[in-house]
């Protein structure tokens, strides 16, 4: 009730303020006050104004100041004439002082009015776009405002109103405006002191003067380049004595995971001389420990599940007979089948020099490589890309080392040694990796307990998605324990136990194997970051171009963040490689606007862009359209009639802000939305696209149809009904 009352009061204030502004502008035009703001009137009245000013200088100055503030605050035409009047009445010094402060105060008032009256409605309609603009304003807003203020070709009242819609602080807007408008103020006030010689306002801004303003406006850009060059010189100062006169390579890439492989591939494609260094296995985590082996495991587990539920398809239920060792051997066979895509031989054939060894940065241009074959090789390069990946995070639980555990990195090798499936398995972690492994092993026959400290699994997804995932895992036999905090591991009479705390009480969970799946941390040590002083926190600190402290050293993939996905690492690699090779000509900002991801449980969960909980957290108004896959013909035919497609759009518009899909092949279905969002296609375009029948992809078309149905022009349809009634006679 209190919020409604406050909201009503705010709305009343907005209406009153808007009414005052409208009345002020209306009075200006109704009483033709603009006739007093012409050059001819000012010249004719100059003597009279001077006489009044001589009798009461303070009162005239205050009245002039108030009129100027009101004119700029209401965004009325005539500020130029009033500025000239300031020069004519008060001279260059005092005229400049009065105009400078009055114009800045008036501009700030216009800025605040725009913010108070318009910003809420603009955010509601263009929240996502405005959020992107605000990030730029936070970073460079003062600089761009200063540049705009220096160039009088841009109408200042437009700048005032538009900046009010952004997140720029009022005090920043004021002082930047005060400084930025000073040069233009001096020009116009000085012209006012020579009022008798002016024949037209165009005479003030001659082509030469406009050119001067443009050059003045370009000065901050030039100054910014100079500042960047100075900073670059400072960063490299302690290394200048070791900077090579010539370089061995154009690019050195550290790490042969997704980010490193793509970086090296791009460099070789554009005929750069590139060396790729890998300390362990080509293909990195995804091929050897992550995406590939886990999906191979999931496939085997899915088939075992389908065999147990053959009656769903009109067949007989059957208990799958299998060797766990054979399942693990199949996983290794899948890895070997994909290995050639990421092999030394393939990349050597593409023109990449591949060195297997441990790389360490010894200067901003020098990499020392301890080769596995023996010896050390030192190479220099103009550009370096760090793509060292991440490793599983192991929580510091007392007794964990003694009890033993595996991670997504070590489990494949250790489990390959087992003849039997782990009978009792604890999965520590309720994120995507933990959920995938918990369900897969449960379907194969393990007694799985999943432990998650948070109140629900898959915390980044909407609550309904988390709940659906929990029910799916429980249906496969997983004991999902959310709100349980792992405290320690114990051994009692030879039995391994995980001690957890829930609702203030301790519980003990017996296990044969424990998988740590609580996240991954970037590999930040051991290859020279510390010695070079490159800042890092959870990841290496980079700018929007993926540059580190040293502009020629870039980071991509898990070491750069903010997303730990193979496809994002490959995406970043393009920017890192191109910027490293061509950055002296042009730098490209990494684009994170449309990032998809998926969790490969059954049913799959796939998402791109906003979901409901993120929209709520950010205060972005959205309209939710939902289509239930239980109504889809192909899903019914496949006995996969569960899940949904949920699309977020701005109220009343078909622009796609985000999509969550839960169901069979959700990750594949998501691709259409990723394409649409990337290229600005809305739901109307999707609805007008032919989708093959019967396919799961029709779910996307039907979701668009749900949105269209909700926005059907009911009044027009009613009239059409009457028209058809009339046609029938």
Care to describe what's here?
- The protein is an alpha/beta fold and 729 residues long.
- The chain folds into four domains: 32-223, no CATH class; 249-392 and 522-582, 3-Layer(bba) Sandwich (FAD/NAD(P)-binding domain), CATH 3.50.50.60; 400-519, 3-Layer(bba) Sandwich (FAD/NAD(P)-binding domain), CATH 3.50.50.60; 603-714, 2-Layer Sandwich (Enolase-like, domain 1).
- The chain has 25 helices and 21 strands.
- The chain has a five-stranded mixed β-barrel with strand order 1-2-3-4-5.
- Helix 16 (432-444) links the parallel strand 8 (424-428) and strand 9 (447-452).
- Helix 2 crosses helix 4 (79-150) and helix 9 runs parallel beside helix 19 (566-582).
- 38% of the residues are buried.
- Residues 1-7 have low confidence and may be disordered.
């Amino acid at each position: 009730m209190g919020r409604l009352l406050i909201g009503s009061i705010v709305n009343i204030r907005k209406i009153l303020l808007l009414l005052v502004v409208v009345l002020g502008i209306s009075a200006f035009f109704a009483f033709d006050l603009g006739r007093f703001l012409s050059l001819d009137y000012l010249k004719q009245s100059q003597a009279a104004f001077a006489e009044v000013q001589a009798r009461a200088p303070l009162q005239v100055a205050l009245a002039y100041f108030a009129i100027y503030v009101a004119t700029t605050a209401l965004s009325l035409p005539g500020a130029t004439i009033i500025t000239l009047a300031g020069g004519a009445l008060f001279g260059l010094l005092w005229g400049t002082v009065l105009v400078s402060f009055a114009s800045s105060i008036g501009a700030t008032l216009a800025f605040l009015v725009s913010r108070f009256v318009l910003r809420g409605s603009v955010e509601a309609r263009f929240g996502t776009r405005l959020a992107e603009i605000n990030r730029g304003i936070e970073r460079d807003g003062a600089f761009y405002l200063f540049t705009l203020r220096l160039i009088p070709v841009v109408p200042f009242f437009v700048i005032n109103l538009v900046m009010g819609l952004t997140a720029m602080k009022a005090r920043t807007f004021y002082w930047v405006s005060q400084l930025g408008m000073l040069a233009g103020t001096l020009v116009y006030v000085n012209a006012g002191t020579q009022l008798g010689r002016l024949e037209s306002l165009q005479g003030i801004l001659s082509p030469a003067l406009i050119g001067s303003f443009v050059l003045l406006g370009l000065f901050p850009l030039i100054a910014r380049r100079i500042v960047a060059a100075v900073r670059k010189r400072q960063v490299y100062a302690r290394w200048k004595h070791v900077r090579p006169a010539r370089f061995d390579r154009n690019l050195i890439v550290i790490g042969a995971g997704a980010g490193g492989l793509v970086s090296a591939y791009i460099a070789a494609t554009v005929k750069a001389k590139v060396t790729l260094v890998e300390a362990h296995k080509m293909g990195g985590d995804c091929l050897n420990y992550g995406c590939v082996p886990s999906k191979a495991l999931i496939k085997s587990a899915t088939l075992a599940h389908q065999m147990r539920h053959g009656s769903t398809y009109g067949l007989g239920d059957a208990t799958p007979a299998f060797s766990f060792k054979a399942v693990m051997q199949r996983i290794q066979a899948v890895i070997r089948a994909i290995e050639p895509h990421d092999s030394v031989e393939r990349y050597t054939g593409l023109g990449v020099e591949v060195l297997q060894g441990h790389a360490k940065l010894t200067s901003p241009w020098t990499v020392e490589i301890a080769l596995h074959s023996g010896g050390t090789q030192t190479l220099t390069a103009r550009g370096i890309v760090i793509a060292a990946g991440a490793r599983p995070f192991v929580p510091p639980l007392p007794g964990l080392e003694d009890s033993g555990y595996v991670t997504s990195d070590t489990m494949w090798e250790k489990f390959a040694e087992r003849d039997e499936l782990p009978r009792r398995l604890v999965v520590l972690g309720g994120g995507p990796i933990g959920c995938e492994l918990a369900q897969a092993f449960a379907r194969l026959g393990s007694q799985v307990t999943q432990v998650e400290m948070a109140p629900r699994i898959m915390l980044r997804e909407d609550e309904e998605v988390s709940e659906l995932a929990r029910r799916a895992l429980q249906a496969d036999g997983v004991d999902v324990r959310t709100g349980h905090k792992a405290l320690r591991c114990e051994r009692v009479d030879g039995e391994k136990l995980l001690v957890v705390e829930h609702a203030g009480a301790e519980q003990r969970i017996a296990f044969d194997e424990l998988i740590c799946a609580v996240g991954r941390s970037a590999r930040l040590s051991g290859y020279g970051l510390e010695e070079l002083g490159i800042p890092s926190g959870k990841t290496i600190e980079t700018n929007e171009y993926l540059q580190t402290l040293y502009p020629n050293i870039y980071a991509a993939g898990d070491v750069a963040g903010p997303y730990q996905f193979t496809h994002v690492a490959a995406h970043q690699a393009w920017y890192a490689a191109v910027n490293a090779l061509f950055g002296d000509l042009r730098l490209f900002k990494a684009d994170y606007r449309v990032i998809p991801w998926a969790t490969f449980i059954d049913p799959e969960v796939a998402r791109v862009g906003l979901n409901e909980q993120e929209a709520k957290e950010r205060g972005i108004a959205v309209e939710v359209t939902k289509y239930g896959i239980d109504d889809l013909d192909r899903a019914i035919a496949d006995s996969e009639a569960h899940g949904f497609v949920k699309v977020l759009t701005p109220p009343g518009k078909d622009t796609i802000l985000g999509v969550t899909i839960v169901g069979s092949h959700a990750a594949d279905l998501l691709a259409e939305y990723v394409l649409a969002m990337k290229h600005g296609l809305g739901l109307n375009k999707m609805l007008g696209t032919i989708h093959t029948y019967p396919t799961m992809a029709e779910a996307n078309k039907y979701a668009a149809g749900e949105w269209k149905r909700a926005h059907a022009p009911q009044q027009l349809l009613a009239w059409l009904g009457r028209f058809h009634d009339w046609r029938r006679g």
